PTS system glucose-specific EIIA component (Halobacillus andaensis), 164 residues
Amino acid sequence: MLKKLFGKKSVEENIVAPLSGKVVSLDEVPDPVFSQRMMGDGIAIEPSNGKVVSPVDGEVVQLFPTNHAVGIKTKSGVEVLVHIGLETVAMEGEGFEGHVTTGDTVKAGDALITFDTDLVNEKAKSTITPVVITNYDDIVEQFDASYSDAADAGETTVITLQTK
């Protein structure tokens, strides 16, 4: 009731592709943690290269020590996780280079991580990269995903959402 009285305003957020490549449904991710949306809803990208950029303007709230995943929180509170590949944590950071640290402010398109796609193909289960709204149930009112065969990192809008 207070929220309605004092009006926390709904905000539209556009999330751009953090990698260039093919944008697919989370249903296509061969890992139930993502395909069953246990971490939240989103999309996945089959990357065409190893350059990861910020999908939103916000603050880096977590860069995993192994540099295989990064979390960013927007000003409106949307938390976006970019998880490079599947079972990449087991690589213990080999082939990954982080370009940001926790607490950094980033703009959509800023470099976050680079990784060796050949090494990930060789040592991990897959290079498919889930992009997930981790606080989806708490914050998302409306969600629209845009699938594409050729998204451009930092340019192509892959998710448009309305906050509660």
About this structure: The chain has one domain: 11-163. The helical segments are 2-6, 32-35, 117-123, 136-139. The longest helix spans residues 117-123. The mean pLDDT is 95.
